[in-house]
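Hello, quick one for you while I still have it in my head. A protein chain has come my way and I'm curious about its shape. I'm sending you its amino acid sequence along with the backbone structure tokens. I'd be grateful if you could look everything over and explain what you see. Here's the protein in full, and shout if anything looks odd to you:
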Amino acid sequence: MRLLRVRVNVKICDDKLLQQARNFDRTALTAVYDHYHPLLYRYITRQVSNGETARELTAVVFERFLAALKNGNGPEDQLKAWLYRTAHNLVIDHYRRQAHRNHLPLADTLPSASDSPGQIAEQHMLGEQVITALQTLTPEQQKVITLKFFEGFSNAEVADLIHKPIGAVKALQHRGLARLQHLLDPQFAQPIEERVA
């Protein structure tokens, strides 16, 4: 019951903050940026695997938010959903523009001195496998898996963000996880007869 009260309070605060932001209240705009910037940056970073690109796309989310408010087209409610939907659309646009490029991004962090070259290579290969596997999912499955497991949203929050019923979110999650398991776990890639033998 307490969690529900906290979510309701956050929604009320978001709605009030949005109304103040629509009036170009600097304090409200600053609060929106301070609260959502780290969340959107983390979300976009997981999608594009490149810190610099994630910073640029996150900045564009807020540029579009301000432009939409200025033009009177900004969100009337559900600020969080509007920002995440904008971020998701920017990521899709980014990949469409980058489709012709086939290069690997440089790592944002340096490996630890205690990591052996074998461990570093294994971590890199596993990370690449997960990214590649995620990219084979449908865009809706990618969005649900990312929001649910990387961003920590509940099924109800994901349903609200993507404008789908909770049952559809659960189905997308189930199919996406099954596909990932099939791609990442060699045991599940084999026909069932070979696994039993």
User: Anything to note?
Assistant: Residues 1-10 have pLDDT under 50 and may be disordered. The domain at 120-197 is CATH 1.10.10.10 (Arc Repressor Mutant, subunit A).
